[in-house]
């Protein structure tokens, strides 16, 4: 199953829990600040931005300035591409924005990694981590950090859309029975069909049937995919 940090963010039940999980993840990678932006397009020049971050209070006004956003090379990269960007002072110097970097750096934003996920129906998710220390010089270590960031962003995006997307725009959730949900919950904990049956007071065969029914309703090919999708949809926690 998924490592704890990746599955935990999908179980967030509100904005505060979501924020706690992304901050915990960022600090686990030794980044002090983190930002997750969910964008919902409604048409030309009409988009909702839901920002969850731990930006220092003294930097909030500057970080929310729309003119700066339009000039920021990291933001513009994420607006157009899904490939992660590893940025530092040089990124801003090349764009003729040295003063912008110097202001950011005074609040701890000296270098970082950012990426965006561009989804169907005008939905976007931007995720970035930042710190005041240089990134690892070892290429393999840096590659590991980027890979962890990409994987976490996929799961954080699922949680963000569930929490912040209006109910009318969310996909319909399959109707699983209480027994099917219980079987998936214990499967998530790593229990075998025999153990699930013993816990629920049913036969191993019936436990397998409940898991298989859940897989079918969720459109998944195995129990691990079913657990992951149920987490994404908020059916189990």
Walk me through the structure:
By secondary structure, the chain is an alpha+beta fold. It has two domains: 4-169, Beta-Lactamase; 178-232, Arc Repressor Mutant, subunit A (Orthogonal Bundle). The chain has twelve helices and five strands. The protein has helices at residues 4-10, 15-28, 60-63, 66-71, 73-80, 89-94, 98-105, 139-164, 178-188, 193-200, 204-218, 223-232, and strands spanning 33-43, 46-53, 85-87, 111-119, 123-131. The protein is elongated and about 70 Å long. The model has no long low-confidence stretch (mean pLDDT 88).
What's this model, at a glance?
With 237 residues, this protein is α+β, with helices and mostly antiparallel strands. The protein is 52% helix and 17% strand.
Largest sheet: 5 strands, antiparallel
**Averaging pLDDT over every residue, what do you get?**
88
* Low-pLDDT residue intervals, each spanning 5 or more residues: none
How do the SSEs run, as a string of H and E? HHEEHHHEHHEEHHHHH
Question: What Rg is obtained from the alpha carbons, in whole angstroms?
Answer: 21 Å
Name the features.
237 residues, 12 helices, 52% helix, elongated, 2 domains, Arc Repressor Mutant, subunit A, alpha+beta, Beta-Lactamase
Give the helices and strands, then pairings.
Blueprint: H1 4-10, H2 15-28, E1 33-43, E2 46-53, H3 60-63, H4 66-71, H5 73-80, E3 85-87, H6 89-94, H7 98-105, E4 111-119, E5 123-131, H8 139-164, H9 178-188, H10 193-200, H11 204-218, H12 223-232
Antiparallel strand pairs: 1-2, 1-5, 3-4, 4-5
């Amino acid at each position: 199953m998924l490592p704890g940090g990746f599955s935990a963010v999908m179980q967030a039940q509100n904005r505060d829990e979501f924020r706690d999980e992304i901050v915990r993840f960022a600090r686990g990678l030794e980044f002090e600040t983190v930002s997750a932006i969910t964008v919902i397009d409604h048409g030309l020049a009409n988009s909702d931005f839901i920002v969850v971050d731990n930006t220092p209070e003294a930097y909030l006004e500057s970080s929310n300035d729309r003119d700066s956003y339009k000039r920021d090379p990291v933001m513009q990269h994420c607006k157009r591409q899904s490939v992660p960007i590893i940025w530092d002072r040089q990124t801003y110097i090349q764009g003729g924005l040295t003063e912008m970097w110097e202001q950011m750096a005074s609040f701890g934003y000296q270098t970082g990694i950012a990426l965006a996920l561009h989804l169907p129906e005008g939905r976007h998710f931007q995720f970035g981590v930042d710190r005041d220390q240089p990134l690892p010089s070892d290429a393999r270590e840096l590659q590991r950090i980027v890979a962890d960031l990409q994987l976490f962003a996929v799961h954080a995006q699922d949680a963000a859309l569930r929490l912040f997307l209006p109910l009318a725009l969310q996909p319909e959730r399959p109707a699983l029975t209480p027994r099917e949900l219980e079987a998936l919950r214990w499967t998530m904990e790593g229990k075998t069909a025999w153990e699930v049956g013993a816990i629920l007071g049913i036969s191993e065969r019936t436990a397998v049937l409940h898991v298989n029914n859940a897989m079918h309703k969720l459109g998944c090919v195995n129990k691990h995919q079913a657990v992951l999708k149920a987490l994404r949809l908020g059916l189990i926690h």
